[in-house]
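#struct-pred
JK: can someone run the complex with zinc ion? inputs below
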Amino acid sequence: MAMMRAARLHRIGGEMSVDRIEIPTPRPTDVLVKVKACGVIPNMKNVITHYAEWFPFLPLPPLPAIYGLDAAGEVVAVGDQVHAVKPGDRVYVNPGVSCGSCHACRRGEPVNCVAYTFLGYFGFGGGSSRVFRDYPYAGFAEYMTAPQSSLVILPPAVSYEAGARLGYLGTAYSALRKAGTRAGQSVLISGATGTLGLGAVLLALGMGATRIFALARNKALLERVRLLAPGRISVHSVDDGPFGDWVRAGTDGLGADIFIDAIGPGAGNGISLAGVDSLRRGGRMVSIGGMAEPLPLEMFRLMCFQISVIGSLWFDTGEGQDMAEMAAAGTLDLSVFEHQRFPLDRIDQALDAIDKRTGGFTNVVIVHD
Ligand SMILES: [Zn+2]
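RT: done, structure tokens with the ligand placed:
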């Protein structure tokens, strides 16, 4: 019986232990991936310590559980109903799994599935417990199974470590798409030096946005963001006061076309509200950072100015493939990330390293041999 190592959590709030378990056999429509790199996302530690209390409506995987959200690796076996993926393919596993047959799935809206579940993280509904039963493996194990429909093929130019970043990049990409981003537009991004916000900056550049307004606090990190494209990116620290006039001054007095709110769950609503106020008529705000305070919005003004406020969760596998192609072509620059690699048996140090990261530029990954 072939065995593998997997970091497993045996109780919420406990530490992960590296256990030896059986390597799974993929079901007919699934593949077996030998995981090479898995991202350690900023929120992972919160999920394994607090989520059960914070968000009882988001089901966690049954214990003992294998975590690890953003995995990239090599396909080593395929089920007998797998068509276009073969052993040897380099892939990113989109961990957002849908059931395939509910009302939303039949309409081609996988993220709106009633059983939508993040493998190795948490689920979004009652149907998630069945998804966790079908797919109990994730990136903090040496091997994982995944549906053939959830694979992004990675071009040779995209390393496994960079591929393990596609999750948070994809969240920003899908938000920019929902906002209708196209070449020549202006985009305001809050939390722009963070893991999500920096991804939004990189993708806005790749999608042809010509004026990017990066908003955050840390001035040294903001300067690093500005230097990514000094002719297109301007920066503002929230420590330097209100930012609406700065956005309007850079858009001929109109306001931004798009506001991507990537500010984190702990923030108040002030920046989100001011961001909506910095939009031009017809502008769109998309929330992805998880700002958790209620937003008192003047709906009559939004109506008169045709301003949209949109919530966006994750991305679909097709959007993941878009990003892989952009990275291969050089329109999405993944070279800005500094990978911090940890072996599986140092998973606790990897989780701690997240707290010491240099904003979104640091990419903490678990790497398997
Ligand atoms: Zn479904």
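RT: quick notes.
Residues 269 and 293 are 6 Å apart (CA to CA).
The mean pLDDT is 95.
JK: thanks, will look after standup
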